[in-house]
Structure formats: C-alpha cells, structure tokens
Structure prediction request, 429 residues.
Amino acid sequence: MTQNTTSRSDTITSAMRVVLSNGLVALIQRNPSTPTVSVRGEVLTGAVHEAAELNGVAVFTGAALIRGTASRSFQQIVAETEERGCSVNAGGGLHSSGFGGKALAEDLPLVLEVLAEMLISPTFPEHEVEKLRGQFLLSLRESEQEPGTQASRAVRRLLYPPEHPYSRLSSGTPETVAAIARADLLAFHRSYAPQLTHIAIVGDVVPEAVVAELERRFGGWQAQQALPPLDLPPVVRPSTVLREDIAMPGKVQSDVIWAVPGLRRSDADYYAAMVGNMILGRIGMGGRLGENIREEQGLAYYAYSGVEADLGAGPWAAAAGVNPEHVEQAIAAILHEIERFCADGPTDEELADARAYLTGSLVLGLETNDGIAGTLLAIERFGLGLDYIARYPAIINGVSHADIVAAARTYLSVEGYVLAVAGPAGGTQ
Prediction:
C-alpha cells in the first residue's frame, strides 16, 4: 500500500460513527484542511418498495421534499440557503432516497435544520407538485425518444418478471407519473424512517458538536409505519436468447444492449466480477469491447459493459451505439468478446492495469469532502467496516485470474441472454 493510500484509509478509519436515540446512523469526519463541509445522506427506501402502478413515485417523492416544509416554502428554502452560500438537495432512487448539502462549516446548523425539515415534515404543496410533475413529464417524453432508453426498458422487461422491481426503470413512465397524486407522495413519504437513514458529514467540524446538532434536529423523528419489506424474487438466467427489436423511425443510431442477471454487492464473487468487468468493458476506451468493436472494427460510436450490483442482483450488461447497418456485426462482436473472455480470462497485463486503476481511483475519490462522505455512506450501506479503505488494495490485488474466469463463466453467457435493439427499422436492415 502506498503512503497516499495509507493516509486516505486513516481518514476513513478515524471517522466517528454514532447511532442516534431514534436509530439514525451518523458518520462524521473532521477535515480541518478546508473551511467547507459536505453533507450526504440516504433513506433506504426507494423504487424497489413502490407498486408497479405507481412506478416513479419514489423519485417523485424524493425530488418534492425541497418544494416546501411545515416551516418553509420552496422559495424560502432557496432564498435562505443561497443568501448564506449554502445548498441543499434531495432526490429518490432505486434502493434509496438521497439528500445532501454543502456550506461553510459555520453554516452547517442551517443546512441540517433545513434537511431535517425536508425529511421529517415536507408538505408537498399542490402547485409545486404540479410544476415538478410537468418537469418530470417533459424529461420522460424526451428520454422516451432516445433509443438507449427504449433498449434499457426492453432489457429489464425481458430479464426480470413483471413483479420484480428491477423490471422497470425507477424514473417511471409518462403514464405512471401523470397518474401519481399528491396523496401518493404523502403515502410513500410515510415509509421514510430514522432507522433507515444514514447521514455522513465531512469538513472542518467538531464531531461532538455535530452529534449534538443532529440530535437536536433529527432526534425527535419517529417512524410513521412499519419498515418497508424488500422483496426481490430470484432471477434465473434465460436458457435461450430473448430478443426485442424496437422500431424508432427517424433515428440515425441504433442502441444495442446485451444482458444477463448479475449478482448482489454482498456476493462472494463480487470483486472478481467487478475486476473482470473493468477489463471486459470499462478501462480505457471501454475495455476489450471498446477496443474491438469501436477502435479496431469501427462498428460503434461507443461500447462498454457494466455490473449493477446492489442490495439485489441487477443486470450485467454490455451496450453499444452503432450505425443501423452494423447492428448484427456489432452483436456478433459483443458475443465474440464475451465468449473469449469466459474461455481465457484476462491477460496478465490487463489484470495488472485493472488492479492499478481500481486502487488508484479509490484514492482520487477521497480527495474531497463530498467524496469522503459518499464513501462513508457506501461503507455503512453495505456493512463494509471503517477499515474497508485500508483493506481494499489487498482485496483487489487478491483477485486472481482464476477468480475472474470462474465469475465470468458463472454469470456471462453467449447461449442464454436477453438482447434489445432500438433504432431505425427496429435495428435490422
């Protein structure tokens, strides 16, 4: 481990972790080298907890938190924070609803006061809800015209059963968002609870004073209903090829997405899959996929792969944006690279490069207060322990060639997978 990595790991291990009287977990790291402070938090309730007919309500609710509270209107929140050079934000997501803020250290009490109001006593004013709905609908209608969005929706429909929350995008659809009522936002907000909430605060602060402020602002918050269950049905890899072509007349590019069910963040072979995916489709200009499909053959505008590993097993996918005339060639190239990777695994050079990149990027992510706060949240969410950064280089360097091959053969397949193509004439010529 380099000296730089050692010093960064010390930054995390010295953080204070406190559980408030109501179950809220706070992680506080003093960083006297900067006069600012960053706040990042999450409530572990999101789109995975919403009903299919209310698809988008978690994102809608999270975004509406700032639109007014029992004590402040949206305009007052903006005016008060901007006057002091502060900022606050909130938004919903797939597994959690996030919130945060930035300020000079002396203005942290104001940021925590406003964030507490947003989380505990939002009012969801009807006129603000309608303005936000209009913005969402405009964004959704624009994104629905993008081949990448249509291909993503199709892949999830093919890969997951309808009752699985991963079978749909957390943003919702124009139809579901248009039907969401203010009462639905109020109902979903009742699933917010301190026991589901983690908050990380990093900057020039006195940790003990921050804990006292958190107890003052958040200590009286109590859950309004039972904690939401997380029901993620198991998903079996397709035994054959399931393909959907979406015709989008007038488009000049086709988006191709290949996918299989992946793995959870807590699975034992997560790191082998992560390092393997870095080599297959992330590092440099898109790993092997980018090198072959984009650089060597000139078939794609972009090509990459990604592993969506969280509380549940998201897709392990490969994607490419191609000229419609090259769709079938690009698909064949994707399958060729996946098959070759499963057979032979990475070269020694590829493995060394991936290890160096992953350990180096971790250090870069700890250069700012916001980066440290985000890392602390991830450590808490997945139960990694505050010594995780110190252990991380050994974990990554311990991933062997055999580990990567085993993970690739376990999850990747050129025989059973789903495939979506969106573009002119359904992506075929």
